[in-house]
Write a structure and sequence with these properties.
rod-shaped, mainly alpha
């Protein structure tokens, strides 16, 4: 015995409505998940930038302190041996002039 087309349509309609509701809920869940992932990615990137910024600042301070320290050492050497410092400066100036003249 064959089922009437009306019976088939009436039994399929609730299933389609349920499926449509599930797809709509799935779309909302995926959109919410993507939004959450985007926020977490941005927060992670901000954290990484903050850490890098702190490390760069610390590195800058370290390099600056070492530069100051080396300048102080050089200053003391120049004060202790002024003639040597003048001869070295003159030699560097002479070599620089010869190289630039070419």
């Amino acid at each position: 015995m064959a089922t009437a087309p009306k019976d088939i349509a009436s039994s399929v309609t609730p299933d389609l409505a349920s499926l449509q509701a599930d797809v709509t809920a799935l779309k909302k869940d995926v959109a919410s998940l993507l939004d959450h992932l985007q926020k977490e990615t941005v927060n992670g990137a901000r954290g990484a930038v903050d850490r890098l910024e702190k490390q760069a600042e610390q590195l800058y301070r370290t390099v600056y302190a070492k530069g100051e320290q080396q300048a102080e050492v050089l200053s003391h050497k120049i004060e202790d041996q002024p003639l040597t410092a003048v001869l070295i400066a003159a030699g560097i100036g002479y070599l620089g002039g010869r190289l630039l003249a070419r």
